[in-house]
Amino acid sequence: MSAHPTRKYLSEFAVNLFSGRWLMIPSWQIGTDGTMLPEYAEVSENCHIYLICRRPGFSYSPSSFRYIDGKISGDLIYKVDGVSHKIPFETEFPLLEGAIDIALSPYPHREIQTKDKNDEIVRYLPATALGIGIGVHVRERSLSDLEVLYVGQAYADGKRSALDRLKRHSTLQKILANAQYNMPDDEIFVLTFEYAPYSVVTMFDGRAKDPIQGEDDEKRFVSILENPLTQHQQICLAEAGLIRYFQPKYNEIYKESFPASDLKILSECYDLDFSALAVEINTEELEFNLYSRSIFPRGHHIAQFDLIDPSKRLSFFSLEGQSGNAIARPDVISPSR
C-alpha cells in the first residue's frame, strides 16, 4: 500500500494567466475591407487568443419595419430549434452623408441600408449590431450565451493580427460551411482577447510536515523571477488551457493531452517547478457568457490545472485530509497519464 503524498516544499507556485481587452466580431466581417475605429483596431492587432463561437442569428421583420420621424422600429427575429421569436425595437437613426432613402436589405433581411440619390449604399446597420446595441441579450438571457467551437492563438511574432490569419483559416471556413448546412439559424462570431503578462501566485502550507524550506525554498522563487516565461510561452499555455477546459468541437490537440509532463510548452514550467496553472477568460464587461458542451455558461471562467501528479506530491491545489490523504478538488484538472 503506497504512502500518502506529502508537501515537498513549504511554498508552491502557480502561473496565472488572465484576459484583458477583447472584441466580438461577426464572422462575415472578417473577409471585408472595412476599417475599424482606431481604438478597436489597436485591440485587434494586439490580441493573443481568439475564440470562434456561435449563438442565434438576427434578422429584421419586413412586415413590422417602419421609418418615421428619424426613428426605426419593428421586430428583430431569431430562431431557436426552428421556432421563431420576436423582440420589438425602436431607436433613432438619422439619414446621414447624403442618404435620401432607407430600406431593409433583401432576404434574409439582415441589414437596414440607407442609399443616396444614385442608389448607392451609404450606411448599413446589421440586425446583430442593433441587437447588441440595445442589449437584447441582457433582456433575454439565452441570447447572452456563446458556444465555444474553437480556440486558437493569434500570436505570430507581431507580424499578423488574428483577423489577418482568420481570413484564410481553414477551420473557420469549415465551421462556417457546417453552420450554414446544420445550423442555418445561427451566427458565427470571432472573439479576440488580449492577455496581460502572467502573474505568479504563491501558496504557503503552514501545516506541511517537514517540507523543504529556508534558503533552498527561496532559491526556487528567485529562479522564477530571474527566468520569466516568454510571451510566446504564455500564449501557448493560455491556448492549451482553454482548449482542455472547454473541449471545443473543432479543436484536436490538447483536448485530452494537456497537461502532460512531456509537452514542450510545459517544459519551462517544470524546470522552474511551477506546480499549477490557472487560465482565466472574462466576458462579463458586455454581459456575455461562454459555454461548451462540457462547461456551463458563465461570464468569468477559471481553468485550473495541477502540473504535478497530486497522488505523488501535494501540489498548489492539493488539500491534505485529517488522515494525511490528498483531497482532490473536482474543479482542478490533473496531469494526463
Folded structure, characterized:
This protein has 337 residues and is of the alpha+beta class. It has 3 domains: 11-18 and 196-333, no CATH class; 22-57 and 141-194; 59-133, no CATH class. It has 8 helices and 19 strands. It has a 5-stranded mixed sheet, with helices on one face. The mean pLDDT is 84.
**Total number of distinct structural domains:** 3
Shape: elongated
Q: What portion of the residues fall into strands of 2 or more residues?
A: 25-35%
Tell me which oligomeric state these chains represent. single chain
Number of helices: 8
Order of helices and strands: EEHEEEEEEEEHHEHHEEHHHEEEEEE
Q: State the major sheet.
A: 5 strands, mixed
**Low-confidence runs of at least 5 consecutive residues:** none
- Secondary-structure-based class equals alpha+beta
Radius of gyration: 25 Å
- Enumerate the strands of the largest sheet in spatial order, edge to edge or round the barrel: 13-1-14-16-19
What is the rounded distance between the termini? 20 Å
User: What level of helicity do the residues show?
Assistant: 10-25%
The number of E-state strands comes to 19
Q: What is the residue-averaged pLDDT?
A: 84
Short description:
This protein has helices spanning 38-45, 127-133, 136-139, 162-166, 170-182, 215-226, 231-246, 267-271, and strands at residues 11-17, 19-26, 49-56, 59-60, 66-68, 71-80, 83-92, 101-104, 111-115, 121-126, 145-153, 186-195, 199-204, 276-282, 289-291, 300-306, 319-320, 326-327, 332-333. By secondary structure, it is α+β, with helices and mostly antiparallel strands. Strand 5 and strand 6 (71-80) form a beta hairpin.
